[in-house]
Amino acid sequence: MTAHLIRGAQLVDGTRADIRLEGRVVTAVGSGLDAAGATVVDAEGLLALPGLVDLHTHLREPGHEESETVLSGSRAAAAGGFTAVNAMANSSPVADTAGVVEQVQALGDAAGYVTVRPIGAVSQGLQGTHLSEIGAMATSRAAVRVFSDDGSCVADPLLMRRALEYIKGFGGVLAQHAQEPRLTIDAQMNEGRLSSELGLAGWPAVAEESIIARDVLLADHVGARLHVCHVSTAGSVEVIRWAKSRGIAVTAEVTPHHLVLTEDLIAGHDGAPGYDARYKVNPPLRSREDVDALRAALADGTIDIVATDHAPHPAEAKHCEWPAAANGMVGLESALSVVHAAVVADGRLDWADVARVLSSAPARIGQVAGHGHAIAEGAPAELTLYDPAAGREFSTADLHGQSQNSPYLGMRLPGRVVATFHAGMPTVLDGRLVDPATVAARAAHERTATA
Fold it and tell me: Is the pLDDT of residue 447 over 80?
């Protein structure tokens, strides 16, 4: 059995300890642990976090492999310190059948870099008219527990109610992309003074807030679990805060980019021209007031987690006129550093909070078994070593997926992921990804051993 001894890491409570991994389990946490038979990893000055879990990743495969594949997205995730990702359903074909979600999970298993949990579509073809094969996906080998039409809103209230009732039956959760489509026709950016000045059609905050208000009431009526994707406005925070005060079973996420970036970037900054499509995303970048409200809501627990909404696109989908550009940003490799910059550096969150919003809470909401556990004896060996004192100018060298549509290129970001351990084995070591063939071979051996 392969063993690793992580020597002298700082835990999230501020104490320092050695961590011994044997097989898929943490077998000891303490000082002066015996290194016999183990590969030693020097973690002096490094922070040990439970492996990060992303509840909102677009892996694009099947059908859009020019943007990302399950393998390339898994590598990007591991490089960012993630040990599990939940893959959204907007592939081609859409993940609305048992066959497609099982394919996605099998591709993740074969890649071996992270645990890949497929998210099933709520409606057939993401069209919002008929329910997908929800029951078949739930009972498939993929055992889907999160369902979402992300990229599209489940706008029909009757279909939304029926989906909540159905998913409630097996303890699942419906993750809603909150966007009233009739209020956002041809929308290009946040609605306000700047959108008028730039001549771009506005995406009003109320289009998000009205759907969240409707859906928390529906979830309360049905008694089902609702998760709100990529919350972006101060008004949405207030609706969610009210719903939680009423005991409604709602959780919510914020993306790293909505914690730091504002609509002003679209007009140009630091001598850079405006209309840079790297900043085009759905929901759009909002105002500074919205960013401040989102940070406060993450700190006080109104917003439960950070999720990347990693959305890769080929160069031609971004290197074009703003109205023609695709929505979305890649975010797996930068997420931990951006959270560090946004809410740790100013003291709103400590590292224990980061472990909660980027690991334990998303694992709990998404029902991702074997992830999100505190680093302790007997816990699954899923963890990340992070150097909080490091810093870098974020560049394409930091990107390990197939697309480069990051809004952080050229920005100075704090911290650096030094190592990622998935199922007890390194997928990243000394800041470099482990060779794909090595990772895949270990994954195949593990599947054979547990068959």
Answer: no
